[in-house]
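Assess the record.
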Amino acid sequence: MSTNPDRESESWESSFKRLLPLYGHRNWIVVADSAYPAQSNPGIETVFTGGDHTEVLKKVLDAIGASIHVRTNVYLDAELKQVAEEDAPGVSALRKEMIQQLAGNNTHELAHEEIIARLDRAGKLFRILILKATLAIPYSSVFLELDCGYWSEEAEERLRRVQPDKTAAALYSGESRRGCTARYYEAKKDRQTMQRREFCKLIAAAAAAGAIPANGQSAAGPTAGFNKLHQTYEEFCATPESERTFYSLVDGKIVEKKLNTADWSATAWGEAPELPGRSWDGVPMQAPVEGQNGDGPYQANWESLLQYEAPEWYRDAKFGIWAHWSPQCVPEFGDWYARNMYEEGSPDYNFQNSHYGHPSEFGYKDLCAQWTLLNWEPEALIERYRSAGARLFIALANHHDGFDAWGSKHQPWNSVNHGPHRDVVGEWAAAARRQGMRFGVTVHQARNWWWFQTAHGVDKSGRFTGVGYDGRMTRAEGKGQWWDGLDPQMLYGPKHPKDALPDASYVKNFYDRTRDLIDQHNPDLLYFDNALLPLGWGGMNVGAYFYNHNLKTHGKMEAVLNVKNVPDKLAKAVVADYERGLTSGIMPYAWQSETCIGEWHYRRSLFEGPGAFGSYLPPRDAIHWLVDTVSKNGTFILNIPGKPDGTIDSKEAAVLDEIAEWLKVNGEAIFDTRPWTVYGEGPNSVTGGPFQGASISAMGSKDIRFTRNKANNVVYAIFMGWPERKAQITSFGLSSKANPGKVQNVTVVGSDAKVTWTQEADALHVQLPFGLPIANSYGAAVKIALS
């Protein structure tokens, strides 16, 4: 029942068995529901199985599991968790069966549109097989991305060290990988007893026969300069626009490019392609210079970083405050102002024109000079944050705008030279450490290559039609200006073709600036606003350097390294960060949730909102977010955006004061705790994943979260709201699957009043006393002593 008319009588199992040997790394197999749309792409083959969804999935997983040439990365629609039984009968049983079937696989939950986007990108180069089942439940498709089953990143790394100029990188370039798979099956016919080691030798020989240079460039293409350090980033920025050489991936090959202003358009967040060979963010993993990882046991590869164990201080801290400050707070108009002010017609662009002038005449560089911090008192703010319960303070070191908030040795656009003329990071660090808090920094600069291209645009209408914004300016144009001697290109980044890969000098500058930040300020925590470590070899080396530097400085591992979108197999190597997100269960390793009470950069209109807390995140939601995170083995970070004069507003302070009062009463149930057997119970649930934090508002007084002390003889049951006098905690019933053991005593944290309780088969029945502290209106913590 294939879409191919020549195979109308072929069963789906025969089709699958015929096609699987031809599929390899980067091919996809989709076990789809009956409503999955037919595809017009000739690289996609659809097979109508006529079979049950779980039966088809089982046979596919069994076949892949028995094969040595591929393994799978599994993706599920995150929306499936939200499909109600009343809307799709049978969905609960399906979810349970899928979890059992996929146990042991590398499984990820992503938004449906994100999975489809990945599938779409893959389908432009690689074949996809869709196996349609009879199931009619939305968001039930299972997406299997095939990976190489006989080769690993670590094996390739070893091979590169032995043969730096001729590697097996050709195996990872689409057609050549599929060719290797085909050669394997031809060889298997002649030698049924071939073992994995012999097969790998065959693959290595095939790669050597058509080897390409280690940095992934095409041997036939004009790419001798790609991933080579011919000049510094400052020199690259100073090169005339028409003379700069860029590199792009075209038809699987890296080619040279010059800027064509006629067809130029600004890039967005930056979706860099995967290069031939191993790469990340459009940058090879192989560094053009050696020894960037520093002295110590950590090497610049994931296998080495997996030695890492999260330090005890971080697991105990639970709550931190973040100051996400940069010159972008000057207009008090919210996040991404620096980029959006150059987008004609946007609210930010209109605000810029009405308050400062057209961006061709008054650009972001000029706003940097107005970030004065005239009333900034770091000691007083740190004292407020510490009093609110924070044990960790985090400062923004740079944003996508490229401005460094310390005395940077590799970026002259910094806060010591301009704006406040103060080492913002250094002063934050000193104040935090004097008051006994751990200190972290966040680095967002890796995206500057793509994010700030809008500064090179022009208006398409009005009186400034065709007039370039100030991103066009060079050092020479600053003569006699306040920025005399500075090159705006170092702030905005050079104008480049939309598909240009990050230049090696840009990657080295990112590495040098971040290493300088580490060396000067020795942070306990280093956060990258990126999926995994950014910019290929740049991020991987600076991550290893951070670990080695910390180990050498402290004599033991005290470092925390945050990145995003971390697959399960790498979760131990770092502390995974969920931006504005939560998880659906207890995580095996320490992780971090971070959000903001408003926007990341200060927006005045949120303060002007009605009520005691304006339009900020209400204290109730912030406290519940903290509690849910801690119950699942996480640490919660809350950003309090600062005003351009260095202060916070009264409504931000009011939110902090409420959190402080709650933690003064209930902190025993939060700090120095660990997750219990189950994270909680109750009628409502949160949605797991990044940017799903708003779901915390669904929590009510019948929802409970659990934590425990380190001795594991006390469990805290935290009600997510003011509890009823008679409450039931089913997880502590004598017949509960949580197997809680015998309860010895029950009290309320922060109260001496007697609690009446009985432990029965169905639940722990608790009658709470009158007169609980007023702070418990956001949630009361019941302390349960166990035998």
